[in-house]
Amino acid sequence: MPQRPALDDLLHAAVSGVGGAERPGQVEMAKAVAHAIDEGEHLLVQAGTGTGKSLAYLVPAVAHAFEAGKPAVVATATLALQAQIVDRDMPRVADALAPVLGRRPTYALVKGRRNYVCLNKLEGGFPDDEDGLLSVGQVDAAVGRLGQEVVRLREWANATDSGDRDELVPGVSERAWRQVSVSAHECMGGKCPLVAECFVERAREAAKDVDVVVTNHSFMAIDSFEGRQMLPEHDVLVVDEAHELVDRVTATITDELTGAMVMTAAKKAGRMSENTAAMDEAGEMLAQALEPLEEGRMLGVPESVGLALARVRDTARTVQSDLKPPPGQEVDGARQIARAAVDEVHENAERILEERELDVVWLNRDQRRGPVLRVAPMSVAMLVRDKVFEERTVVLTSATLELGGTFDAVAGTIGLRGEGAPKWQGLDVGSPFDYPKQAIAYVAAHLPPPGRDGAGDDTLDEIEQLVRAAGGRTLGLFSSMRAAQTAAEVMRARFGDDIPVLCQGEDQITTLVRQFARDPRTCLFGTLTLWQGVDVPGSSCQLVIIDRIPFPRPDDPLASARSQAIARMGGNGFMAVSATHAALRLAQGAGRLVRRADDRGVVAFLDSRMMTARYAGFLQRSLPPFYPTTDKKMVLAALARLDAVAPPPVAVEEPALRSLTGARADADGTEHPRPVAVPPPAPASSRSAVAAGHAWTDEQDEELRDAADAGMQLDELVDHFELPEETIAARVDQLGLTIASGALFD
């Protein structure tokens, strides 16, 4: 086992290699991470923007991997940070540390199976999905966009080195991608005839021999809960963007059940079981039992629903037995897909019937799918404690881990407080930025508190004045898509061509952000994704507008259940759940402004409760220490001065092709994948309709109808269309369809 060089030498080499200068916070964090790894002690590190935190954990992670002979795992919440680590940070760190370590550190990007093309399915090893598009593509590429997409996928699959969907530019529809991909449950595993050529297996095999594995929170969580079988053996886990961990874990283990899901599973089993008719009837029974119920949380499973769920569970168990292959026969693709669907139905029905103490069960009603029964854990704290923090050192880091001036709120949600909690340390290394001199936190205290009817004329006038003073350069963060769209429409009418206004949902998020970053006169309005997923340093973003305090919806079943549980124990449910949620979002939103030492600007809060409410102090302490004011004239003058002297915008980096390990094909010495000629995106149909600011084409509408028929969930469509939930939901409503959706802000 090689002996690693001193951390100071490694950090100095890495910082020099990336052309930077060592920062006190970065050095302090790197030493704390190294100490935690050496002592086997968990660590929470708050590191403000500009600290260089990725370098501060990557260097000690590489050093440990070099010494221990096993990789360190880095899990992030967003694709943007994964790309930053794999495309920018690790290549530079690897080049810089190679002379010191005696070899170049290696790294890999690991994703879920659905992100890769399945060669067995491509070769006909699985039954075609709903409309047999593979055969359509084989026979006639001119039948339409979907057939052409499948032909493109075949050509790309023969050329790609990685099989990673993100490499395919422009992308394809979700419906076409389903023809060439399988879920983890549908995969045949070692029994697949093409397992030796499988992109997923090759990528994961390659990851076993690297020093740093980069993945996402959800994949890491599934791996932890299922026995760490997908990630290589490791004893160090770094969780970046750790403020998102609880929500990502909760989403990963949230289940749902509908009568249609049961009947679809029975249909997939088909002639492979003699009991599918009984299972189909159980699905109808469940749909009928759910039909008269009202939306909202269930404090107990009603008798009629319980009887239907028991029938679903029992018939699914019988079909499960029937789906076992006859002695001496291997599982084929059709049988594996049927087993996956029936297993899901059985497991979800059984879970709801168990009425676990910490599970929250609720009903949503959709126009097309009908009533949808959902179940999620009220708290994942003990699960994270037992499964994530066991048998490895975990370092959690983010720019927003201290809320209200303490780590307690975040630590409690991940199982690091209370009896039996593992040992951990908290550290705030601050930020190298001079926040009071670089940024102003302006509260429009003269505005009335926001109501439920959207922004009033006074608020819209305030937005106009701020944006005009800034000369554009504005990122507008809104608590609902409706508010963002309304503000965008009004501002476009008032500004004309002088100041372009983009709105989330009108194009892919990455495209909108690049357009915003390139043109300093442009504004970008949106919600959710933009609150924490935008990194636009420089003069293109000198004003961030936050329309209201982003509390969770009052009818959110999980938030209300958590609040009530805390209140029953004598705590303050509002402060522990709603105020903490809002503080985290506000800190993330405000953090969009200052991304470098030379950034200057204003964060404008258009919610006067930031000054007047009893919880205002808690929210204020969660924000970066900007210079606070309620003086509107001073703020307008400051924005005008910044606009007058603003430098040119920062250059925008474009997407890259990837190798088998997920690294940029030009960053680690590997060859570029062979280029494939791809057509430009299809033009919008002349019959396109606008919903939530996005022009929907006939082809996209067809995809939505197929998604509704297939029982797909909204998060899958969000990933495919790269549009916000609200935009997709708006078009779904126009078409009279139903797609399962998650909770949104008011």
Give an overview in words:
This protein has 746 residues and is α/β, with parallel strands linked by helices. It is built from 30 helices and 20 strands. A hairpin with a 2-residue loop joins strand 19 (689-691) and strand 20. The radius of gyration is 26 Å and the shape is globular. Its cofactor is [4Fe-4S] cluster. Keywords: ATP-binding, Helicase, Hydrolase, Nucleotide-binding. Residues 12-297 form the Helicase ATP-binding domain. This is DNA 5'-3' helicase.
Properties at a glance:
seven-stranded parallel beta sheet; 746 residues; 30 helices
Helical content band: 40-55%
Briefly note the structural class of the backbone. alpha/beta
Please mark out the parts with pLDDT under 50 across 5 or more consecutive residues, or reply none.
130-143, 667-693, 741-746
Mean pLDDT: 84
Overall 3D form: globular
Between the first and last Cα atoms, what is the distance in angstroms? 56 Å
The gyration radius over C-alpha positions equals 26 Å
Number of helices: 30
Strand order of the largest sheet: 3-4-2-5-10-1-11
How many beta-strand segments? 20
Biggest sheet, open or closed, and with what strands and sense? 7 strands, parallel
Write down the oligomeric state. Answer: single chain
Protein name: DNA 5'-3' helicase
Family: Belongs to the helicase family. DinG subfamily.
GO molecular function, one term: helicase activity
EC number: 5.6.2.3
